[in-house]
Specification:
mainly alpha; 136 residues; 0% strand
């Protein structure tokens, strides 16, 4: 069994499970908002890695990708909060398939996949299907 994928992804999934449980305990109606914020932090890590290791064109491409994902997530937050979960899961899949040259350590894409899948599914399960007054 390949532990170079399994261990980081399980650790990421466990970390996201704890974060989702805490969020649901503290402010269950705002799990999609927390997911949008978490996505921004995750994307910022990739921009930082590109700044440290890539040419300017790669930094600009990463910024454009991150901006697109955050705009889509924000629009979803306003229109269909469960969509934030879909976007987060899509980000994890994208990372696993395409982000191995992003300047991150080899363990990070499977870790991010574990985080993104669990967090995204938690949002899909527990977020309201429509914006609440607090999200509008």
């Amino acid at each position: 069994m390949d532990t170079s994928f399994l261990m980081p992804s399980l650790f990421g999934a466990a970390l996201a499970g704890v974060a989702a449980a805490v969020q649901l305990r503290v402010a269950p109606g705002r799990i999609a908002n927390a997911g949008h914020f978490a996505l921004g932090m995750i994307l910022a890590l990739y921009i930082g890695a590109r700044l440290a290791s890539g040419p300017l064109s790669a930094v600009l491409a990463e910024c454009a990708f991150a901006s697109g994902m955050l705009i889509a997530s924000f629009a979803s937050l306003r229109l269909w909060p469960k969509g934030v979960g879909v976007i987060i899961v899509a980000h994890g899949i994208y990372d696993q398939l395409f982000a191995h040259d992003a300047g991150m350590p080899d363990w990070y894409p499977p870790f991010c996949l574990g985080v993104d899948v669990v967090l995204g599914l938690a949002i899909l399960v527990w977020a309201s299907g429509r914006p609440t007054q607090a999200q509008s």
